[in-house]
Amino acid sequence: MKILLDECVTKRLRQHLPEHEVLTVSQMKWNGFRNGQLMAKAAAEQFDLLLTIDKNLRFQQNINKQDLIVVVIDSPSSKLEDILTLLPQFFIQLQTFEKRKAYIISQ
User: 74 near 55, Cβ under 8 Å?
Assistant: First the structure.
C-alpha cells in the first residue's frame, strides 16, 4: 500500500510501516498545501492512504471526492510513542479500509 504521512505525523513512523511504500509530505515537496489540495495531489499520485493526526480533516473536507483512504490517528500528541500505541489497531483495520472514506483509529 502506498501511504502518505501528513505534515503533522512524524517521519519516524515510516520505519514502523516496513511492508508499505511510505512517503512524507516533505519528501513530496507538498509542505504548506491545504488539506483539499493535499488530498487531490495524493490521489493524483496514486497514494492509497493519507495518514494524519488532524482530527478536523474529516469534517473540513469532502472525503468521497478523492480516490483515497483517509486515516486519522486519534493520538493525544504527535509524539512517535503516542502514535505507536495506536498502530496495532491501525494494522487490524487496514484490510477493511475503503477508498473515499475516512477512519479514526482510537483506543
Answer: yes
* 71-81 residues labelled b (16+ CB within 10 A) or e (exposed): bbbebeeeebe
> In the block, which residue shows the cell 501511504?
3
- The domain containing residue 46 runs over which residues? 2-105
> What's the pLDDT tens digit per position in 18-38?
999 999 999 999 998 988 899
Give backbone dihedrals phi and psi of 37, rounded to 5 degrees, phi first. Answer: -65, -45
What is the number of structural domains in the chain? 1
* Phi-psi sector, 32: left (phi>0), alpha (psi -120 to 50), beta: left
